Amino acid sequence: MSLVTEASTPSKVELTDEEIFSGHVGGKLSVETTAPLDTQRALSIAYTPGVAQVSRAIAADETLADRYTWTNRLVVVVSDGSAVLGLGDIGPRASLPVMEGKSALFKNFAGLNSIPLVLDTKDPDAIVETLVRLRPSFGAVNLEDISAPRCFEIEKRVIEALDCPVMHDDQHGTAIVALAALKGAARVQDRDITKLRVVISGAGAAGVACANILLAAGIADITVLDSKGIVSSDRGDLNEIKVDLAARTNPAGRTGGIVEALDGADVFLGVSAGTVPEEIIATMADDAIIFAMSNPDPEIHPDIARKHAAIVATGRSDFPNQINNVLAFPGVFKGALDAGARRITEGMKLAAAEAILSVVADELAVDKIVPSPLDPRVAPAVAEAVAKAARDEGVAAN
Predict the structure, then answer these.
(1) 169-325+343-398 falls under which CATH superfamily?
(2) How far apart are CA 396 and CA 262, in angstroms?
């Protein structure tokens, strides 16, 4: 029996250029003091001579910096501007409004201090060295909008070099929320998620991370597509990342392109800038699930997708089931920092996905497979689950 229903569509928000640009004048961040500076005594405590006593104490015991500075709760949002939204390589200065926005989301949704750090280099060595040298100034690193395949190397090396939580959100934030949404869709349909045949369109940062987390969640039949077709072990044009991906996906040995991949598939997960014709979507299995996550232009328009799919999600806010990274990253970093975790593990990511789903467990519907990005319950639930997972896995200090 088909589960295709009419889903209520959120009203589309119309924005004017004047409204957008005026909202960015002067940037979206400011630094606020946490101690009064309105008397001579207060000034003497906050700055000289009182501050010298605190600095001497930290010099004698560096761990005191966690208590007497903002370091251990400060997230730096780091980008080289090479893969910003759907705009591509626009450079560090043009990426700054996005990074400021990310920092604002950390503060608003998780109460974490955050600053953007855009780097005028694409050299992985320089990026890693910069973060190593700046390590005393922050407590966690959110890598952002760095192009593939460099993003994989940079994240791996920064994780190895630093003793604090590091996550490339374009990879893992996307993957966490996609998994939560797929779990929600499967529960609405009363299906076993591990039995679904999934096609991922896009083998960049998000596509690879989505494949990895879905494999970790127990889904065995995953086919990944790049711009040249199915990522399969018979191809000789794959980079190192895709060779590894081919070895762990496509168990049926499918070859060809999107036509061959989607024929009879249960799930389409789009994280590419491509488009998918309606006639190909129509060949998917009954009660199909379509996540057309490319933003602002989904791989297939939701209205068309709903003709052939039981459940449809996008990355846009003006359609039901928005798959938005803000459901994940604020709580993930808060939970990691609360636990004093030195790493963000696969188990912590899986716990985050389950926590996102738990928020709407009793409210699940065809048009509500994940919470709203504005739901205030999400970040606390994710943080608690991530912190517990960190402690269970033995990577927590607190």
Answers:
(1) NAD(P)-binding Rossmann-like Domain (3.40.50.720)
(2) 42
